[in-house]
TrEMBL record:
Coiled-coil stretches: none
Membrane-spanning residues: none
Keyword annotations of the record: Hydrolase
Protein name: Histidine phosphatase family protein
Length: 235
């Protein structure tokens, strides 16, 4: 059997002009995750990342802590779901079709829970067979790219080795959905709760792959207590 560790990026710069960069806390989370893995004796035979800045920097910071860091392989198929594009295109359409959704949009600037529900509604419409929106990346194209990259990483791994993928919450949820053979309407359940720098472990061989752990931040919880820092974040 081999192990594949799917690691979410550290905290990005939410609310800043450029979201796609690690915050100082996100850099700290990535460094400490790498130190934890090094102490555990983990070595990666290969490491992959999407080409977003927050993914690449997290991956590089983590592997730089290891005794024998592999070269980080950049693969844009591990990029995040394009949430901003989906909201821009689909929010007006859904407002016209659903009065309850329109109420969420009216409250989104003052209520963070409303905004999260908007993201959920838009995502679930995007992955559904009812979605008839053109001009944006489709769920089929996105998920097929993620699965293809994921299966390629597994195919390249030798038995008994560890491989890392540094990516984002939507991509992690898509991988988990594939491993668990979930229908698309179940994927969002594994998207919303993903912590920064969490570790999802998948064990596999040439015949099968299984989800071992999902969204584990035990390393950051331990270090939070030891260092008296708040290291566990969603966003």
């Amino acid at each position: 059997m081999a192990n594949l560790l799917v690691i979410r990026h550290g905290q990005a710069s939410f609310g800043a002009e450029n979201y796609d960069q690690l915050s100082p806390l996100g850099q700290r989370q990535a460094d400490l995750t790498g130190q934890f893995l090094a102490k555990m004796g983990v070595t990666f035979s290969a490491a992959y990342s999407g080409d977003l800045s927050r993914q690449r920097e997290t991956g590089q910071r983590v592997i730089d802590q290891l005794e024998k860091p592999p070269q980080l392989i950049i693969d844009p198929r591990f990029n995040e779901v394009q949430t901003d594009e989906q909201i821009e295109v689909m929010m007006p359409l859904l407002k016209e079709r659903d009065a309850r959704f329109a109420d969420l949009v009216a409250a989104m600037d003052t209520d963070t829970k409303s905004f999260q529900k908007i993201i959920e509604t838009v995502f679930n419409y995007w992955v559904s067979s009812d979605c008839d929106v053109s001009g944006i990346q489709s769920w089929a194209d996105y998920s097929e790219g993620v699965v293809s990259a994921f299966e390629g990483a597994m195919a390249s791994a030798a038995s008994g080795t560890d491989t890392a993928i540094f990516t984002s919450g939507g991509t992690i949820a898509t991988i988990v959905g594939h491993v668990l053979r979930l229908t698309s309407d179940r994927v969002y359940e594994f998207y919303e709760p993903v912590f920064n720098c969490s570790i999802t472990r998948i064990i596999f061989n040439s015949r099968k792959c299984s989800l071992s752990t999902f969204n584990d931040v035990g390393h950051l919880q331990l270090m939070s207590a030891q260092l008296e820092e708040r290291l566990v974040t969603y966003r």
